[in-house]
Amino acid sequence: MLKIDNLSATVANKPILKGLSLTINAGEIHAIMGPNGAGKSTLGYTLGGRPGYEVTGGSVEFDGQDLLALEPHERAAAGLFLGFQYPVEIPGVSFVQFLREAANAQRKVRGEAPLSGGEFLKLAREQAALLRMDMDMLKRPVNVGFSGGEKKRAEMVQMGILGPKLAILDETDSGLDIDALRVCGEGINTIMRRPDKAVLLITHYQRLLDYVQPDFVHVLAGGRIVKTGGPELAHQLEEHGYEAVAA
Amino acid sequence: MSAEPLPTRREEDFRYADLTALAGVWPVAVEAIVVAAGQSAALSVVNTGDAPVARELSVTLAAGAKFALHVLNAGSAYGRIAVRAELGAGAEFTLGAAQLGGGGQVLELITNVSHAAPDAVSRQVVRSVVGGQATANYLGKVHVAPGANGTDGSQSVRAMLLDRTATANARPELEIHADDVKCAHGCAVGELDRNGLFYLQSRGLTPPEAKRLMLQAFIAEAFTGAADEATLQDAALKALGDLL
Ligand SMILES: Nc1ncnc2c1ncn2[C@@H]1O[C@H](COP(=O)(O)OP(=O)(O)O)[C@@H](O)[C@H]1O
Ligand SMILES: [Mg+2]
Question: A93 and B199: CB-CB below 8 Å?
Answer without folding.
Answer: no
